[in-house]
Amino acid sequence: MDSEISADAELDCIGLYCPMPISMTKEEIEKIKPGQVLKVEADDPAAEEDILRWAKRSGHEILKFENNDGILTFFIRRNK
């Protein structure tokens, strides 16, 4: 079932550190339409808390979050 999540846009933040992953995620989510999904990959441990907290505060939905050996993957649906 997880493989059914498809992204309308992708953002690669591998190798970038705070605050770049969250800043870039905020910018990129504005480029897609409500209902579309943004896939974000990051390897900065701070990105997990930053992006999860930001999504909750801003009203966007985390469809899926994975941490695979330090590679953080988020699927975020833009809700507004």
UniProtKB/TrEMBL annotation:
<protein>
    <submittedName>
        <fullName>Sulfurtransferase TusA family protein</fullName>
    </submittedName>
</protein>
<dbReference type="InterPro" id="IPR036868">
    <property type="entry name" value="TusA-like_sf"/>
</dbReference>
<dbReference type="InterPro" id="IPR001455">
    <property type="entry name" value="TusA-like"/>
</dbReference>
<comment type="similarity">
    <text>Belongs to the sulfur carrier protein TusA family.</text>
</comment>
<feature type="domain" description="UPF0033">
    <location>
        <begin position="10"/>
        <end position="78"/>
    </location>
</feature>
<dbReference type="Pfam" id="PF01206">
    <property type="entry name" value="TusA"/>
</dbReference>
